[in-house]
Amino acid sequence: MTASISDTASRHLSPRPSASGELTASDPLAKRCDSPKLAYRRALAEGILVEDDAQRQAVDALECCHRALVDGTRPDGVYLWGKVGRGKTWLMDLFAAGCPVPVRRLHFHHFMRWVHRRQFQLGGGVDPLNRLADELVGEVRVLCLDELYVEDIADAMLLGGLLERLFVRGLVVLTTSNQPPSELYRNGFNRERFMPAIAAMEQHMQAVHLGGDLDHREHPGVSRQRYFVRRSGEPSVLPEQFRRLAPAGIVDTTLTVGSRTIDVRGLGTKAIWCDFADLCEAPLSTLDFIGLCDRFDTLMLGGVPGLAGEAQPARIARGTEDAYQRVVAGDRELPPLAPRDDSVRRFIALVDECYDRGVPLVIEAEVPMEALYPNGYLAFAFRRTLSRLREMQWERFGQCPGV
To answer: Which among 176, 115, 108, 174 has a CA at the least distance from the CA of 141?
Structure first.
């Protein structure tokens, strides 16, 4: 039996936005219209959050933005940055929930997916980014982008050019990131072409650092184990986990994901169980993981190995890069990568998508969580992955906005 995923499927099982990023009247977030300060005080009173001075500063900045929008004036945007677990995403969702004007909230990956898709649909032409900017400004007054992180020259050029045009047109932009604007695309090739975008962000957005050592993802709650370590010779816990989630599910089948067919250990109406090799070692992309989260309420991943490995000597890359204008790349040295780093990138993207959509990810691995990827070229990005996996070990995950 082979199943397929509709690219247009949507889900609203948690207060998080759908893959489209739009908040509609049917979304739980859209039903609330509190100002950021009022909603934050309520969350403190209800015990959802704990006191945090850094968060209060961020709420003050969001409140100023909210009030200006209510008054009909154009405020600066807000750029929330800091280490993982500081509440950046939760605060941005709080703002989007009560935004008094049309707003679109997207994970950065989803936003870039839209940019690439619309650019293709427009068929090129002279400076299609102007048309994309006009389209966005015609639909919303505020754009919220979660987890802004630039690592590709093509994305850097597209994002930089589009943001500059959006700011000129008066769109208010809010973002979250692990880095301040000045550190975006640091050490990236042709970074000087991205510097005007950084300058524009610093001019039109208030950067707020959520510092401190308080990790809100570790706020006490009812635990729910979703990460299991399977030692050599031990039986797997996943068959029983799958039976609980999908009593009428089928086993050992296949599923069409995009244009590819993958092997599936278990397939239910709302749950799917796959091996690491079939999702993270296969040539799948973030778009495929978006499709899985559109379709299923829970994802299960078995056979996850230790992901660290010895980095290989760097190579020299030659050629050109295409953004909305051609960039001559020339020769440059690629970073030293370990054999499994491509799989690590896909694993990071899978965890990010599940977390952003409030979809629990049940994992069975050969090593404890902290030993998955202790060092390597992707260690900075993987710290966020670990924090998100820890958050998934609470019962509350998927039931309320994450922090």
So the answer is: 174
The helix or strand, by DSSP H or E, that contains position 272, with its residue range, turns out to be strand 271-275
Q: How many CB atoms lie within 10 A of CB 326?
A: 10
What are residue 55's phi and psi, to 5 degrees? Answer: -65, -35
Q: Cβ–Cβ contacts within 10 Å for residue 114, how many? A: 17
Radius of gyration of the chain (CA): 21
From-to residues of CATH 3.40.50.300 in the chain: 7-216
Q: 218 or 56, which is more confident?
A: 56
Residue 231 DSSP one-character state: -
Tell me the CA distances in angstroms from 277 to 239, 274, 280, 283, 313, one per residue in order: 18, 8, 6, 10, 25
Please identify which residue in the block is written with the tokens 């809100």: 216
Task: Check if the beta carbon of residue 317 is closer than 8 Å to that of residue 332.
Answer: yes
* ∠ CA 384-389-391, rounded to 5°: 95
Fold of 7-216: Rossmann fold (3.40.50)
> Whole-prediction pTM value?
0.61
Task: Please give the structure tokens belonging to residue 192.
Answer: 């000087």
204: burial class by Cβ within 10 Å (0-12, 13-18, 19+)?
A: buried
Do residues 207 and 61 lie in contact, with contact meaning Cβ atoms separated by under 8 Å?
no
| Other C-beta atoms lying within 10 Å of the C-beta of residue 141 | 17
b (16+ CB within 10 A) / e for 273-302: bbbbebbbbbebbbbbbbbbbbbbbbbbbb
DSSP of 72-116: T----EEEEE-STTSSHHHHHHHHHHT-SS-EEEEEHHHHHHHHH
Q: Does residue 167 contact residue 204 with C-beta atoms inside 8 Å?
A: yes
Task: Summarize pLDDT for 191-230 with one digit per residue, the tens.
Answer: 888 888 899 999 999 999 998 766 665 555 678 899 999 9
How far does CA 75 lie from the centroid of its chain? 26
